[in-house]
Amino acid sequence: MTMLVKLFSIYKWSVLFFIIAISSSCATVTLKKQEVKPVESYKYSSSKDALTVAVQPMSRSEDCIEYFGSDLIANKILPIFIVVENKNPSLNFTIFKEKITMQSSSATDNLISDKDQNYLKSSQNTGEALSGTGAVISSGAVFMPIGALAAAPFLLVAGAKQMTDSATIKYNFTDNEFRTKTITPGKNSYGFVYLKIPETINLKNSDFYILSIIAKDIENDKQLNFEFKISL
Amino acid sequence: MNICLSLIRKYIVLCFITSLLAGCASTTTVVPEKTVIFPTTDKINLNVKVEIKKSILEASYKYLDYEKFSYQLGDNFVKNIESLSRNIFNKYTISNDQESGVANARFDAILIPELVAIEGKTGMWASNDAQTAIILEWTLKNSKGDVLWVDTVKGVAESGAGTGIGPNNFAVMSNIRIEAAIKDVFLKSYDSIYSSPAIKKLSSIKSK
Question: In chain B, which residue's Cα lies nearest the Cα of A24?
Fold first, then answer.
Protein backbone atom coordinates (compact mmCIF):
# COMPACT_ATOMS: atom_id res chain seq x y z
CA MET A 1 0.00 0.00 0.00
CA THR A 2 2.81 2.41 0.98
CA MET A 3 4.46 1.54 -2.29
CA LEU A 4 1.32 2.47 -4.18
CA VAL A 5 1.09 5.82 -2.40
CA LYS A 6 4.73 6.53 -3.25
CA LEU A 7 4.17 5.64 -6.88
CA PHE A 8 1.12 7.88 -6.99
CA SER A 9 3.15 10.72 -5.51
CA ILE A 10 5.87 10.26 -8.17
CA TYR A 11 3.17 10.20 -10.83
CA LYS A 12 1.69 13.49 -9.54
CA TRP A 13 5.08 15.15 -9.47
CA SER A 14 5.94 13.97 -12.98
CA VAL A 15 2.65 15.36 -14.32
CA LEU A 16 3.31 18.68 -12.56
CA PHE A 17 6.90 18.81 -13.83
CA PHE A 18 5.73 18.05 -17.36
CA ILE A 19 3.11 20.82 -17.29
CA ILE A 20 5.64 23.34 -15.91
CA ALA A 21 8.19 22.31 -18.50
CA ILE A 22 5.68 22.86 -21.29
CA SER A 23 4.23 26.12 -20.04
CA SER A 24 7.61 27.71 -19.37
CA SER A 25 8.87 27.14 -22.88
CA CYS A 26 5.91 27.23 -25.21
CA ALA A 27 6.36 30.76 -26.53
CA THR A 28 8.99 30.92 -29.27
CA VAL A 29 10.73 34.28 -29.52
CA THR A 30 9.25 36.65 -32.11
CA LEU A 31 11.61 39.15 -33.73
CA LYS A 32 10.76 42.31 -35.57
CA LYS A 33 11.64 42.48 -39.26
CA GLN A 34 13.66 45.45 -40.55
CA GLU A 35 11.57 47.48 -42.97
CA VAL A 36 13.22 48.34 -46.30
CA LYS A 37 12.32 51.89 -47.34
CA PRO A 38 13.04 53.63 -50.66
CA VAL A 39 16.79 54.15 -50.69
CA GLU A 40 16.59 57.97 -50.98
CA SER A 41 14.40 58.27 -47.88
CA TYR A 42 17.09 57.29 -45.36
CA LYS A 43 18.79 59.95 -43.25
CA TYR A 44 22.21 58.85 -44.52
CA SER A 45 22.07 58.35 -48.27
CA SER A 46 24.41 59.10 -51.16
CA SER A 47 24.47 58.56 -54.96
CA LYS A 48 27.32 58.20 -57.41
CA ASP A 49 27.05 57.05 -61.04
CA ALA A 50 23.36 56.27 -60.36
CA LEU A 51 24.34 53.87 -57.58
CA THR A 52 22.63 54.88 -54.34
CA VAL A 53 23.83 53.66 -50.95
CA ALA A 54 21.94 54.29 -47.71
CA VAL A 55 22.89 53.32 -44.16
CA GLN A 56 21.02 53.21 -40.87
CA PRO A 57 22.94 52.34 -37.69
CA MET A 58 21.13 50.53 -34.87
CA SER A 59 22.85 51.83 -31.76
CA ARG A 60 20.06 51.48 -29.18
CA SER A 61 20.11 48.32 -27.09
CA GLU A 62 16.28 48.27 -27.04
CA ASP A 63 16.15 48.15 -30.84
CA CYS A 64 18.74 45.37 -30.96
CA ILE A 65 16.68 43.27 -28.54
CA GLU A 66 13.54 43.90 -30.57
CA TYR A 67 15.12 43.03 -33.93
CA PHE A 68 17.78 40.48 -32.93
CA GLY A 69 16.58 39.09 -29.59
CA SER A 70 19.90 40.05 -28.08
CA ASP A 71 21.59 43.19 -26.79
CA LEU A 72 24.26 43.36 -29.45
CA ILE A 73 25.58 46.73 -28.25
CA ALA A 74 26.33 45.28 -24.81
CA ASN A 75 28.13 42.48 -26.62
CA LYS A 76 30.23 44.99 -28.59
CA ILE A 77 28.52 44.47 -31.93
CA LEU A 78 27.03 47.40 -33.86
CA PRO A 79 24.50 46.44 -36.55
CA ILE A 80 24.24 48.81 -39.51
CA PHE A 81 21.46 48.37 -42.04
CA ILE A 82 22.66 48.98 -45.59
CA VAL A 83 20.51 49.44 -48.69
CA VAL A 84 22.08 49.64 -52.16
CA GLU A 85 20.20 50.35 -55.36
CA ASN A 86 21.75 50.31 -58.82
CA LYS A 87 19.86 52.60 -61.22
CA ASN A 88 22.76 52.77 -63.65
CA PRO A 89 21.52 51.45 -67.00
CA SER A 90 24.69 49.59 -67.91
CA LEU A 91 27.19 49.25 -65.05
CA ASN A 92 27.42 46.45 -62.48
CA PHE A 93 28.73 47.26 -59.03
CA THR A 94 30.13 44.87 -56.45
CA ILE A 95 30.12 45.73 -52.77
CA PHE A 96 32.50 43.63 -50.72
CA LYS A 97 31.07 43.32 -47.22
CA GLU A 98 34.52 42.68 -45.77
CA LYS A 99 35.69 46.13 -46.91
CA ILE A 100 33.02 48.07 -45.05
CA THR A 101 34.62 49.86 -42.10
CA MET A 102 33.78 52.56 -39.62
CA GLN A 103 36.10 54.96 -37.86
CA SER A 104 35.56 57.10 -34.78
CA SER A 105 36.05 60.87 -35.16
CA SER A 106 38.39 61.30 -32.25
CA ALA A 107 42.05 60.82 -33.03
CA THR A 108 42.63 60.46 -29.30
CA ASP A 109 40.60 57.24 -29.20
CA ASN A 110 42.69 54.20 -28.70
CA LEU A 111 43.53 52.24 -31.79
CA ILE A 112 41.95 48.86 -32.25
CA SER A 113 43.20 46.80 -29.33
CA ASP A 114 45.56 43.83 -29.59
CA LYS A 115 42.75 41.65 -28.32
CA ASP A 116 40.47 42.85 -31.11
CA GLN A 117 43.22 42.54 -33.70
CA ASN A 118 43.80 38.92 -32.70
CA TYR A 119 40.09 38.22 -32.63
CA LEU A 120 39.52 39.76 -36.04
CA LYS A 121 42.50 38.00 -37.57
CA SER A 122 41.16 34.69 -36.34
CA SER A 123 37.64 35.31 -37.63
CA GLN A 124 37.14 34.04 -41.13
CA ASN A 125 35.80 37.16 -42.77
CA THR A 126 38.11 39.91 -41.78
CA GLY A 127 41.66 39.16 -42.86
CA GLU A 128 41.25 41.07 -46.09
CA ALA A 129 39.61 44.02 -44.37
CA LEU A 130 42.51 44.48 -41.97
CA SER A 131 45.06 44.57 -44.74
CA GLY A 132 42.83 46.68 -46.96
CA THR A 133 42.26 49.46 -44.46
CA GLY A 134 45.75 50.17 -43.23
CA ALA A 135 45.43 53.84 -44.16
CA VAL A 136 42.60 54.60 -41.77
CA ILE A 137 43.95 52.73 -38.78
CA SER A 138 46.37 55.57 -38.13
CA SER A 139 43.76 58.01 -36.71
CA GLY A 140 40.58 57.03 -34.79
CA ALA A 141 39.53 53.55 -33.76
CA VAL A 142 38.36 51.31 -36.56
CA PHE A 143 35.30 49.08 -36.48
CA MET A 144 35.59 45.98 -38.66
CA PRO A 145 32.80 43.73 -39.89
CA ILE A 146 32.43 40.29 -38.41
CA GLY A 147 30.51 37.50 -40.05
CA ALA A 148 27.33 36.13 -38.53
CA LEU A 149 29.07 32.83 -37.76
CA ALA A 150 31.90 34.55 -35.93
CA ALA A 151 29.38 36.58 -33.95
CA ALA A 152 27.27 33.60 -32.90
CA PRO A 153 29.04 33.08 -29.55
CA PHE A 154 28.15 36.67 -28.59
CA LEU A 155 24.50 35.91 -29.26
CA LEU A 156 24.56 32.87 -27.01
CA VAL A 157 26.22 34.85 -24.23
CA ALA A 158 23.27 37.21 -24.46
CA GLY A 159 21.20 34.35 -23.16
CA ALA A 160 18.65 32.68 -25.36
CA LYS A 161 16.45 30.99 -22.84
CA GLN A 162 16.03 27.77 -24.71
CA MET A 163 17.24 25.85 -27.70
CA THR A 164 14.52 26.93 -30.12
CA ASP A 165 14.87 30.59 -29.18
CA SER A 166 18.60 30.34 -29.60
CA ALA A 167 18.17 28.78 -33.05
CA THR A 168 15.65 31.48 -34.06
CA ILE A 169 17.99 34.27 -32.95
CA LYS A 170 20.94 32.76 -34.80
CA TYR A 171 18.86 32.12 -37.90
CA ASN A 172 17.55 35.67 -37.94
CA PHE A 173 21.04 37.09 -37.42
CA THR A 174 22.47 35.13 -40.36
CA ASP A 175 19.41 35.63 -42.55
CA ASN A 176 19.53 39.43 -42.21
CA GLU A 177 23.23 39.80 -42.96
CA PHE A 178 24.34 41.95 -45.88
CA ARG A 179 26.12 39.78 -48.46
CA THR A 180 28.89 40.47 -50.92
CA LYS A 181 27.17 40.72 -54.28
CA THR A 182 27.47 42.08 -57.79
CA ILE A 183 24.45 44.36 -58.21
CA THR A 184 23.29 44.46 -61.81
CA PRO A 185 21.34 47.39 -63.37
CA GLY A 186 17.89 47.84 -61.85
CA LYS A 187 18.62 45.58 -58.86
CA ASN A 188 19.09 46.30 -55.18
CA SER A 189 20.63 44.62 -52.18
CA TYR A 190 20.18 45.15 -48.47
CA GLY A 191 21.00 43.70 -45.07
CA PHE A 192 22.88 44.29 -41.83
CA VAL A 193 26.62 44.55 -41.51
CA TYR A 194 27.77 43.65 -38.02
CA LEU A 195 30.71 45.77 -36.92
CA LYS A 196 32.88 44.71 -34.00
CA ILE A 197 33.13 47.60 -31.56
CA PRO A 198 36.71 47.82 -30.26
CA GLU A 199 36.85 46.89 -26.56
CA THR A 200 38.15 50.32 -25.54
CA ILE A 201 35.37 52.29 -27.26
CA ASN A 202 32.20 53.69 -25.75
CA LEU A 203 29.87 54.57 -28.63
CA LYS A 204 28.60 57.71 -26.92
CA ASN A 205 32.07 59.21 -26.51
CA SER A 206 32.61 60.16 -30.12
CA ASP A 207 30.72 63.06 -31.77
CA PHE A 208 30.47 61.27 -35.05
CA TYR A 209 31.77 58.29 -36.99
CA ILE A 210 32.84 57.87 -40.60
CA LEU A 211 31.39 54.81 -42.27
CA SER A 212 33.15 53.81 -45.51
CA ILE A 213 31.64 51.62 -48.19
CA ILE A 214 33.43 50.78 -51.42
CA ALA A 215 31.52 49.89 -54.57
CA LYS A 216 33.59 48.45 -57.38
CA ASP A 217 32.81 48.62 -61.07
CA ILE A 218 34.94 45.60 -61.87
CA GLU A 219 34.53 45.77 -65.63
CA ASN A 220 36.01 49.27 -65.86
CA ASP A 221 38.30 48.83 -62.86
CA LYS A 222 36.71 51.84 -61.17
CA GLN A 223 36.05 52.31 -57.48
CA LEU A 224 33.34 54.44 -55.89
CA ASN A 225 33.93 55.49 -52.28
CA PHE A 226 30.90 56.25 -50.16
CA GLU A 227 31.58 57.95 -46.84
CA PHE A 228 28.90 58.75 -44.31
CA LYS A 229 29.38 61.01 -41.31
CA ILE A 230 27.02 59.46 -38.78
CA SER A 231 26.06 60.23 -35.18
CA LEU A 232 25.14 57.42 -32.81
CA MET B 1 -15.15 9.64 -18.99
CA ASN B 2 -12.91 7.71 -16.62
CA ILE B 3 -11.35 5.79 -19.48
CA CYS B 4 -10.70 9.05 -21.26
CA LEU B 5 -9.01 10.58 -18.21
CA SER B 6 -6.97 7.47 -17.72
CA LEU B 7 -5.77 7.61 -21.32
CA ILE B 8 -4.80 11.28 -20.98
CA ARG B 9 -2.85 10.47 -17.79
CA LYS B 10 -1.05 7.62 -19.51
CA TYR B 11 -0.21 9.86 -22.46
CA ILE B 12 1.21 12.54 -20.16
CA VAL B 13 3.39 10.01 -18.35
CA LEU B 14 4.52 8.55 -21.67
CA CYS B 15 5.45 12.03 -22.94
CA PHE B 16 7.36 12.71 -19.75
CA ILE B 17 9.32 9.46 -20.00
CA THR B 18 10.00 10.09 -23.69
CA SER B 19 11.32 13.57 -22.95
CA LEU B 20 13.60 12.14 -20.25
CA LEU B 21 14.91 9.41 -22.53
CA ALA B 22 15.42 11.70 -25.52
CA GLY B 23 18.86 12.66 -24.26
CA CYS B 24 19.94 9.03 -24.29
CA ALA B 25 19.46 8.62 -28.04
CA SER B 26 22.51 7.48 -29.99
CA THR B 27 24.23 9.76 -32.48
CA THR B 28 22.55 9.99 -35.88
CA THR B 29 24.43 11.31 -38.89
CA VAL B 30 22.43 11.89 -42.04
CA VAL B 31 24.11 12.01 -45.43
CA PRO B 32 21.64 13.29 -48.06
CA GLU B 33 22.07 11.48 -51.36
CA LYS B 34 19.52 13.09 -53.68
CA THR B 35 21.06 15.35 -56.29
CA VAL B 36 19.34 18.24 -58.01
CA ILE B 37 18.07 17.94 -61.57
CA PHE B 38 18.99 21.13 -63.43
CA PRO B 39 17.15 22.56 -66.46
CA THR B 40 18.51 21.59 -69.85
CA THR B 41 19.55 24.71 -71.73
CA ASP B 42 22.27 25.74 -74.18
CA LYS B 43 25.64 25.41 -72.53
CA ILE B 44 27.92 28.41 -72.19
CA ASN B 45 31.02 28.17 -74.33
CA LEU B 46 33.63 28.44 -71.60
CA ASN B 47 36.29 26.20 -70.12
CA VAL B 48 35.91 26.73 -66.38
CA LYS B 49 37.85 25.49 -63.39
CA VAL B 50 35.57 24.96 -60.40
CA GLU B 51 37.51 25.24 -57.15
CA ILE B 52 36.05 23.30 -54.27
CA LYS B 53 37.07 24.82 -50.96
CA LYS B 54 37.20 23.35 -47.47
CA SER B 55 33.90 25.01 -46.50
CA ILE B 56 32.14 22.89 -49.14
CA LEU B 57 34.07 19.66 -48.59
CA GLU B 58 33.49 19.74 -44.86
CA ALA B 59 29.97 21.16 -44.90
CA SER B 60 27.91 19.92 -41.99
CA TYR B 61 24.92 20.98 -39.96
CA LYS B 62 23.68 20.10 -36.49
CA TYR B 63 19.93 20.14 -36.00
CA LEU B 64 19.34 22.90 -33.44
CA ASP B 65 23.00 22.53 -32.44
CA TYR B 66 22.10 19.10 -31.15
CA GLU B 67 25.31 17.04 -31.15
CA LYS B 68 23.54 13.73 -31.65
CA PHE B 69 21.62 14.65 -34.79
CA SER B 70 23.77 15.99 -37.57
CA TYR B 71 24.14 16.15 -41.35
CA GLN B 72 27.26 15.60 -43.42
CA LEU B 73 26.65 17.62 -46.58
CA GLY B 74 30.07 17.89 -48.25
CA ASP B 75 29.71 14.95 -50.67
CA ASN B 76 26.22 16.03 -51.67
CA PHE B 77 27.36 19.61 -52.30
CA VAL B 78 30.30 18.44 -54.45
CA LYS B 79 28.00 16.21 -56.54
CA ASN B 80 25.56 19.07 -57.05
CA ILE B 81 28.33 21.54 -57.92
CA GLU B 82 29.65 19.09 -60.50
CA SER B 83 26.17 18.53 -61.94
CA LEU B 84 25.54 22.30 -62.06
CA SER B 85 28.87 22.88 -63.84
CA ARG B 86 28.12 20.09 -66.34
CA ASN B 87 24.75 21.68 -67.13
CA ILE B 88 26.07 25.22 -67.55
CA PHE B 89 29.52 25.04 -69.13
CA ASN B 90 30.85 23.32 -72.25
CA LYS B 91 33.94 22.23 -70.40
CA TYR B 92 34.77 22.19 -66.73
CA THR B 93 37.32 20.79 -64.30
CA ILE B 94 36.58 20.20 -60.65
CA SER B 95 39.54 20.93 -58.44
CA ASN B 96 39.76 20.86 -54.68
CA ASP B 97 42.20 22.61 -52.38
CA GLN B 98 44.58 19.69 -52.35
CA GLU B 99 44.96 19.89 -56.14
CA SER B 100 45.70 23.59 -56.32
CA GLY B 101 48.52 22.83 -58.75
CA VAL B 102 46.02 22.82 -61.63
CA ALA B 103 47.31 25.69 -63.75
CA ASN B 104 44.77 28.48 -64.13
CA ALA B 105 46.10 29.89 -67.41
CA ARG B 106 44.43 27.22 -69.53
CA PHE B 107 40.98 28.09 -68.19
CA ASP B 108 38.70 30.91 -69.32
CA ALA B 109 37.49 31.47 -65.78
CA ILE B 110 37.62 30.15 -62.23
CA LEU B 111 34.36 29.58 -60.37
CA ILE B 112 34.58 29.29 -56.58
CA PRO B 113 31.60 28.22 -54.47
CA GLU B 114 31.87 28.76 -50.71
CA LEU B 115 29.46 27.76 -47.97
CA VAL B 116 28.47 30.85 -45.99
CA ALA B 117 26.01 29.33 -43.52
CA ILE B 118 23.45 26.66 -42.81
CA GLU B 119 20.89 27.68 -40.24
CA GLY B 120 17.62 26.26 -38.98
CA LYS B 121 14.87 27.39 -36.70
CA THR B 122 11.78 25.65 -35.39
CA GLY B 123 8.91 26.21 -33.00
CA MET B 124 8.19 24.08 -29.96
CA TRP B 125 5.13 22.32 -31.33
CA ALA B 126 4.37 20.11 -34.28
CA SER B 127 2.01 22.74 -35.66
CA ASN B 128 4.72 25.44 -35.54
CA ASP B 129 6.66 26.32 -38.67
CA ALA B 130 10.27 25.34 -39.13
CA GLN B 131 12.77 26.74 -41.64
CA THR B 132 16.15 25.66 -42.92
CA ALA B 133 18.38 27.96 -44.96
CA ILE B 134 21.58 27.23 -46.88
CA ILE B 135 23.64 30.17 -48.10
CA LEU B 136 26.31 29.79 -50.80
CA GLU B 137 28.63 32.46 -52.17
CA TRP B 138 29.79 32.13 -55.79
CA THR B 139 32.84 34.05 -57.00
CA LEU B 140 33.98 34.18 -60.61
CA LYS B 141 37.58 35.10 -61.33
CA ASN B 142 39.55 35.42 -64.54
CA SER B 143 42.62 33.25 -65.08
CA LYS B 144 44.80 35.97 -63.49
CA GLY B 145 42.79 35.76 -60.29
CA ASP B 146 40.87 39.07 -60.59
CA VAL B 147 37.32 38.93 -59.25
CA LEU B 148 34.78 39.43 -62.08
CA TRP B 149 31.49 38.71 -60.35
CA VAL B 150 30.15 37.64 -56.94
CA ASP B 151 26.73 36.47 -55.85
CA THR B 152 25.39 35.11 -52.60
CA VAL B 153 22.46 32.74 -52.98
CA LYS B 154 20.10 31.58 -50.26
CA GLY B 155 18.06 28.39 -50.45
CA VAL B 156 15.16 28.14 -48.03
CA ALA B 157 12.81 25.31 -47.08
CA GLU B 158 9.79 25.46 -44.79
CA SER B 159 7.65 22.78 -43.18
CA GLY B 160 5.88 21.96 -39.96
CA ALA B 161 8.23 21.38 -37.03
CA GLY B 162 7.29 17.70 -36.77
CA THR B 163 6.04 15.52 -33.95
CA GLY B 164 8.07 13.72 -31.29
CA ILE B 165 7.17 10.32 -32.68
CA GLY B 166 5.32 8.99 -35.75
CA PRO B 167 5.78 9.24 -39.51
CA ASN B 168 6.02 13.05 -39.51
CA ASN B 169 8.47 13.25 -36.63
CA PHE B 170 10.95 16.12 -36.35
CA ALA B 171 13.81 14.08 -37.82
CA VAL B 172 11.84 13.20 -40.96
CA MET B 173 10.69 16.79 -41.37
CA SER B 174 14.22 18.08 -40.87
CA ASN B 175 15.51 15.68 -43.57
CA ILE B 176 12.81 16.91 -45.95
CA ARG B 177 13.76 20.54 -45.29
CA ILE B 178 17.46 19.90 -45.78
CA GLU B 179 16.82 18.21 -49.15
CA ALA B 180 14.46 21.01 -50.22
CA ALA B 181 16.91 23.73 -49.13
CA ILE B 182 19.72 22.02 -51.10
CA LYS B 183 17.48 21.88 -54.17
CA ASP B 184 16.46 25.53 -53.76
CA VAL B 185 19.98 26.87 -53.26
CA PHE B 186 21.41 24.98 -56.25
CA LEU B 187 18.56 25.85 -58.63
CA LYS B 188 18.87 29.53 -57.64
CA SER B 189 22.65 29.26 -58.06
CA TYR B 190 22.13 27.80 -61.52
CA ASP B 191 19.90 30.76 -62.51
CA SER B 192 22.31 33.27 -61.03
CA ILE B 193 25.42 31.85 -62.74
CA TYR B 194 23.64 31.28 -66.03
CA SER B 195 22.43 34.89 -66.13
CA SER B 196 25.64 36.43 -64.81
CA PRO B 197 26.69 39.39 -67.00
CA ALA B 198 30.36 38.62 -66.41
CA ILE B 199 29.98 35.05 -67.69
CA LYS B 200 27.99 36.22 -70.72
CA LYS B 201 30.69 38.76 -71.53
CA LEU B 202 33.51 36.21 -71.20
CA SER B 203 31.63 33.86 -73.47
CA SER B 204 30.99 36.52 -76.11
CA ILE B 205 34.67 37.55 -76.07
CA LYS B 206 35.67 33.93 -76.56
CA SER B 207 33.23 33.46 -79.43
CA LYS B 208 34.66 36.42 -81.40
Answer: B124
